[in-house]
Design brief:
The protein is an all-alpha fold and 149 residues long. It has a domain of 74 residues: Cytochrome Bc1 Complex, Chain D, domain 2 (Orthogonal Bundle), CATH 1.10.760. Helices cover 60% and strands 0% of the residues. It contains 7 helices and no strands. Helix 4 packs across helix 7 and helix 5 crosses helix 6. The protein is rod-shaped, with a radius of gyration of 33 Å. Bound molecules: heme C (HEC). The site of heme C has 26 residues, from helix 4, helix 6 and helix 7.
């Protein structure tokens, strides 16, 4: 077959298709179904720019993630298992005298923080809070009764 015959065949094929496509008219949509489609094809994540309404909300979530957790939150999640009952000889929450004694023996709150953060005796490093910053670890210590001088 020559190129010309090819072109001619193509023209015949297309000529046969066009009328069919022309017959397939779009179905008119009512408002409800149009809204439904808009929602269905909406992007999964919406980009928030500063100043947008959505930016105020998502900003709060984002900053929560980067802000240090409170001593109470860290304690309740990680430290309570041992430090509420004094398991394995852990100084108990609220036993300020014991916390002070330990801090004084080492030379202060920060020294106690360092030693606890590194792990001591039966306590694993960071008191099992592997994501805890020293600041968060210290807040939990204060929540348990250690006095920051
Ligand atoms: C698996 C049990 C366990 C968990 C969980 C735990 N601790 Fe402890 N912790 C201990 C024990 C036991 C000691 C006493 C260690 C010793 O004196 O030998 C201790 C001691 C400490 C001390 C004193 C360290 C020192 O040098 O005397 C600090 C500070 C401390 N824990 C902080 C925390 C914080 C903060 C958390 C939570 C983030 C935590 N611990 C979670 C068991 C635990």
């Amino acid at each position: 077959m020559t190129l010309v015959t090819h072109m001619r065949l193509l023209a015949i094929l297309l000529g046969g298709l066009f009328p069919v496509m022309a017959l397939a008219k779009p179905v008119p949509l009512d408002d409800a179904s149009r809204q439904e489609i808009v929602e269905r094809i909406a992007p999964v994540g919406t980009v928030c720019k500063q100043g947008d309404d959505c930016a105020t909300n998502s900003g709060a979530v984002a900053s929560t993630a980067s802000e240090p957790r409170s001593g109470e939150a860290v304690f309740n999640q990680f430290c309570t298992a041992c430090h509420t009952t004094g398991l394995l000889g852990a100084p108990k929450k609220g036993d300020t005298a014991e916390w002070t004694k330990r801090a004084n023996a080492l030379g202060g709150f920060n020294k106690l923080l360092q030693q606890g953060y590194a792990g001591i005796g039966s306590m694993p490093a960071k008191g099992t809070c592997m994501t805890c910053s020293e600041e968060e670890f210290g807040s939990a210590m204060q929540y348990m009764g250690a006095k920051k001088e």
